[in-house]
Amino acid sequence: MSSATLLALTISIIAIGLLTFLMRLAFLWSSSRSLLPPNIEQALRFVPPAVLTALIVPNLLRQSGFFIPSIDIARLIAALVALVVAWRTRRIVVTLALGMATLWLLTFLRL
Amino acid sequence: MAHPFVRGARDTLPLMPGDIPAGLVYGVAARSAGLPPWLAQAMSAVIFAGSAQFAVVALAATGASAGVIVLTAALLNLRHMLYGASLAPFLRDAPRRWKIVLAYLLTDETYGVVIGRLAPMSQSDRLRYILGSGLTLWICWQGSTLIGVVIGSEVPASLSLDFAATLTFVVLLVPLLTERARVGAAVAAALVAVVAFNAPLRLGLIIATLAGVAVGLVTDWRKKPASAARSDEITAGISLSSPPAQVDDADHDEQLVKEV
After folding, report:
1. At what angle do helices B203-223 and B79-87 cross, to 10 degrees?
2. pLDDT one-digit tens code per residue, A11-44
């Protein structure tokens, strides 16, 4: 990596760090209630279920070469097992253990 | 009951099996992309957001321009504004020095851990709870990326330890699915995440989230006209309500059962 490239990359990283910090702080900073219109606040109720689902789903898929990806069956089943276990127990460690065990078993069976 | 800082740290520990391998892999990837060790490690402290750091490494490896790198990482981190806005009602009267520290420590993981559990806490407990979660994650992230940078050895891919993070998100999601509008938001986000799987820049994450929020709002709005929604109801909703707290805490099992 040339020194010019290194300098540009270092500056980029500092810029990203500052931008990220400011984005994290933006809505936290003010103590006034009027910052967020009520309809925005209402929309925020749906951010956690939506973003968690959007973080989960791509990890159950893989590239297919087509527009629609194919499903990773082992991961999908492991996630469904985790879903049921989480629903019944609500315990993170139990869910992780059974979910990973399911994935390893299915991978071992080459499903 | 344990100090809120300790509880925040303890509730975050189950995410470590997902995060530590990611940190190791990041460290290794950054070195193999040609970043000097000090810069690879400094990036973990300066940016402190895994997906953006991976993007910087991938783009730097292909010789992308500084502008493209900054824009891509900023897009990936846009969601942190939503997290901040979602947390804001809980921290409205907090001292600003606390807000600065907690904003720096705000990540997907800490947001996911704390958001459902803050409502019953006092203001000062909330601050310490979030600090406990954020600092735990920060230490694990810095430590695991450091090991990855220094050793440069690989975590066996066959163990699929990255999947532990996905399972953790499942545990965090389940308690939120208590009303039809939230289920609708999750289903819509899932469908769009499939269709947008090939979208560049991991924009699929943002598109699917927005689609989920839109469907949640429409479902809610059809059930009861907007005029009927009182603002205190809305604020209560943000507390994400749902049987939150202490997913892994036996002390609270009773409370959870009641709420279910």
Report:
1. 40
2. 999 999 999 999 999 988 876 655 567 777 788 7
Let me know: does B127 contact B94? Beta carbons within 8 Å. yes
Could you tell me the pTM of the whole model? 0.63
Residue B41, min C-alpha distance to chain A (Å)? 11
Q: How far does A16 lie from chain B, in Å, by closest CA? A: 6
Q: How far is B207 from chain A (nearest CA, A)?
A: 9
CA angle B107, B113, A98 (to 5 degrees): 115
Q: Quick one: which of B121, B117, B139 has its CA closest to B45? A: B139
Q: Which residues pair with A61 in a beta bridge?
A: A71
Q: Is the ipTM of this complex over 0.95?
A: no
**A-to-B residue pairs, Cβ atoms closer than 8 angstroms:** 286
Cβ-Cβ contacts under 8 Å, B91 against chain A: 28
Q: Is A88 on the interface with B (CB under 8 A)?
A: no
CA gap B235, B220 in Å, rounded: 15
Q: What SS3 class is residue B199?
A: coil
Q: With residue A70 as reference, give the H or E element that holds it.
A: strand A70-71
